[in-house]
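Researcher: I'd like a candidate sequence for this fold, 308 residues long. If you have to choose between options at a position, lean toward the conservative one.
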């Protein structure tokens, strides 16, 4: 027979094991990662002639990504060569996405980059923001062909899976933007995977627009800015290569998430780099540049337990 002290000791040991098990289960059910959206600005001669060319910007853009520790992020406007340049300067990253003009390599992409040490790609695809989503084509009153890229990802070493959508809505077509918002919500509602979902992109609409409200008030997706525990933002997300800013809190780049996620931190990264010239008096002058004409939006995400 056990003495009272022995019984007390056994009970303490069992309680310790139980508490450890509960902690392990709680810890295993929550996973943190860094997610972002970044319009990287298409490569063009006009920017190069004005001092904001892709070859000048790319090293700073990718260093920004590495320094801030993006683990998965959506991009907009990138041509294939730009994406390949980024991949070469982002060791350990892969990307998914196709050119919007032909569904292969031609035209701008809405690519998703991901850290292969953190995520496993399960499945991916693309659809066009138009009445014919299965093939390239203009949507409604859009000025450009627009595409959405998606991927199903699993956090390595866990069972947690999610589907990530990344898009770029039209900059001209009012109807196109409204219909695109409806389309993406219908896609998420009817998604065959029935997984937690993330939506990011350059929406070309601000937080006061009806299309934005349609998504944020859907009861399915939440604006990351709204639900973030901590926010760091004091400039418009579009900067037109002007570091001094174009206004306050005019957000057109957004991240939305289902209720399976919480947002620990939300930040607009206004990093700049500098070049130097010599003025007429022989004095050195520094010039501030932004790596793109948009600032990236970065969030720190915590998952909730995936019941699937």
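Model: Candidate sequence:
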């Amino acid at each position: 027979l056990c003495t009272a002290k022995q019984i007390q000791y056994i009970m303490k040991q069992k309680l310790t094991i139980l508490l450890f098990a509960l902690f392990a289960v709680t810890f295993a059910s929550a996973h943190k990662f860094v997610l972002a959206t970044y319009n990287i600005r298409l490569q063009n001669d006009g920017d190069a002639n004005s001092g904001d060319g892709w070859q000048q910007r790319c090293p700073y853009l990718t260093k920004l990504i590495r320094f801030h520790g993006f683990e998965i992020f959506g991009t907009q406007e990138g041509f294939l060569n730009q994406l390949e340049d980024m991949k070469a300067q982002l060791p350990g990253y892969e990307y998914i996405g196709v050119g919007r003009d032909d569904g292969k390599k031609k035209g701008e992409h809405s690519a998703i980059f991901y850290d292969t040490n953190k995520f496993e790609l399960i499945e991916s695809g693309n659809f066009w923001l138009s009445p014919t989503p299965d093939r390239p084509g203009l949507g409604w009153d859009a000025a450009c062909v627009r595409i959405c890229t998606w991927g199903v990802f699993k956090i390595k070493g866990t069972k947690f899976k999610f589907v990530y959508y990344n898009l770029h809505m039209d900059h001209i077509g009012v109807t196109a933007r409204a219909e695109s918002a409806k389309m993406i919500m219908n896609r998420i509602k009817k998604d065959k995977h029935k997984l937690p979902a993330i939506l990011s992109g350059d929406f070309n609409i601000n937080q006061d627009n009806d299309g934005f409200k349609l998504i944020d008030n859907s009861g399915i997706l939440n604006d990351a800015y709204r639900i973030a525990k901590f926010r760091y933002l004091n400039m418009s997300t579009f900067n037109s290569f002007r570091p001094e800013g174009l206004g306050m809190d005019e957000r057109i780049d957004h991240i939305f998430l289902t209720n399976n996620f919480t947002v620990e931190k939300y930040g607009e990264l206004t990093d700049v780099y500098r070049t130097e010239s010599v003025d007429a008096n022989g004095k050195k002058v520094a010039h501030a540049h932004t790596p793109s004409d948009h600032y990236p939006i970065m969030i720190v995400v915590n998952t909730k337990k995936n019941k699937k």
